[in-house]
Amino acid sequence: MHFSALFLILLAGLMMGSFVVPMKAMPQWEFENSWLLFCFMGLVVFPTLVALVTVPHLGQVLLTAPRRSLLLATSCGLGYGCGSVLFGLGVRELGMGLAYSIVAGLSSSFGSLIPWASGRGQPLGYSLLLWLGVVVMLSGVAICCVAGGERAKNLGATPQESANPRRLYLGLAICISSGILVCFQNLGLAFGAGITQQAHQLGATVRDAPNAVWLIIMNCGFVATVIYYGRLISRRGNWKQYGVKTLPYFCLALLMAVMWEGCLVGYGAGANELGPLGPSVGWPIMTSNTWSAATGEWRGAGRRAVSIMMLGIGVLLTAVFILGWASTKA
């Protein structure tokens, strides 16, 4: 059993569930300002530096890697970038905990099934457990959506707002779309295996080789981010906000980027150690819900809404366990 790899993936999930928290301490910037700065450091600066430091002969790796792997990694990166844009909007609409539960649950489900479908000769036990985990995961997502509806009714500022589900439905649609697109990040790691193999052949360690793939996925993902949020900032005339609280807010965005890069490196190393079916293990979820509770996102939502959300989290945790168990049968 690959305990060290599973530990790395769980540690990556801890960082993934925490990286958005510093944004709550940046009230004098608009959301798009904070998100764009984080994305620049987290999707461009850090992946590039990590790849340069950990992957020997990086330029040669990218020049000699299979073209099919390069094309698929690039395409997945662009798709992930669109999902990242929607994820940021989903967090703004629904809050960190609920948005994470929906997006991570859906991306885990699709990100598990697509590599499984593209592979050949998977053991029957692995396939059955994988499908069971995906069904349980989707059930957990549905329960979390119900909890979001209960919270929306209880947190409306007025009776009219409480009765109007438009914002909830918009947020759910954004998060569902994001969950489908964000899984392209996971798929990029799976379909970019040729790049990982080439990096390993040219001297990168097994744990560091995936960083060459992350470089492509993250850099391409930033394209959609800078197009959308850069245009939004220009339209609203908010570039000047970068002159307010510049140093402390820059440090907070840097902290977000460090946790995000740590998540990528830890997950890439753990999934790579699990072998060719490693990327089919579920994407860890739960830390964000702890932070959302600690920061008061569910305060005033009502006991029923909180109870339903806790049930949804329990179901999602069960799904993560099943998907992790499935990896031991591969």
Secondary structure layout:
Elements (H helix, E strand, L loop, with lengths): L2 H14 L14 H24 L3 H7 L2 H28 L1 H23 L5 H32 L3 H5 L2 H26 L1 H9 L9 H26 L9 H28 L13 H8 L8 H26 L2
What does it look like?
By secondary structure, the protein is an all-alpha fold. It contains 13 helices and no strands. Helix content is 78%, strand content 0%. The longest helix is centred in the middle third of the chain and has 32 residues, at 124-155. The chain is globular, with a radius of gyration of 20 Å.
Brief synopsis:
The protein has 13 helices and no strands.
Q: Keyphrases for this structure?
A:
mainly alpha, globular, about 325 residues
- The number of strands is 0
What is the global morphology? globular
Strand content: under 5%
Largest sheet: none
Whole-number tally of structural domains: 1
**How many helices?**
13
Poorly predicted runs: 157-163, 276-287
Order of helices and strands: HHHHHHHHHHHHH
What is the rounded distance between the termini? 10 Å
Q: What's the pLDDT, averaged over the residues?
A: 80
Helix percentage range: over 70%
> Which value, in Å, is the CA radius of gyration?
20 Å
Structural class: mainly alpha
- Regarding quaternary structure, what we see is single chain
